[in-house]
Write a structure and sequence with these properties.
The chain is an alpha/beta fold. The protein has ten helices and seven strands.
Length: 270
Amino acid sequence: MDENGLIDPEELRAAIRPDTILISVMAANNEIGTIEPLREIGEIAKEKGILFHTDAVQAFGHIPIDVEEMHIDMLSASAHKLGGPKGIGLMYIRKGVKIRSFIHGGAQERQRRAGTHNVPGIVGFGKAMELALENMEERSKYETQLRDHLIDRVLAEIPYTKLNGDRTKRLPNNANFSFRFIEGESLLILLDQNGICASSGSACTSGSLDPSHVLLAIGLPHEIAHGSLRLTLSEKTTKEEIDFTIEKLKEIVTRLRNMSPLYEDFVKKQ
């Protein structure tokens, strides 16, 4: 994996052992937005006779995924990432792939998961998926334009800022930055006071004060990883809202840096 979180298929190939039975890769990272080379990975898995699973929760309905072209044997997704109901997901399993029961008991879900079906959730997921696929190309193009406008302005107008994740091979609605000499939690509080919703990592780790394990894994030092910010867009986001966010972000970063003795020492040495 490189500094942008992009998996090298040849490194993956070299990591395969004689007892490897499964390759599992995120289709796109939920924090830094990097889209992984699923087709290349799938080809390696097929060549080696290894099952290939992708966690497509963040990508499903946002970018094209073809289980045949990408040789995907199993795929997991979640409704809430498409504007559907929370608490419902899906697991695609290629015909012929055998897995053990997840919940034993009844014969539901072809004896793989006993329990009463969540019918409202299933119907809601189906409708959300239908709507997402109908306008995915148009929505992706719009979000990508907004994303690039956001990234270009932030990198140009806020010094000592780093974009996390690949510049182009990233989800259309994701932007993740690290601001030197900034503590992420303070940044979030001040953004919230201005009506801007953001996060310093994934929702899964929102209760932790530790820096993102994703940012540490791509090589960022702790002090820079602590100053990370993730902004997520949608088709309902406007350019005016993006520009408002950028202006507030500039003010807040300047304010926090002026309070930082580390930044003061850094400026003196320049």
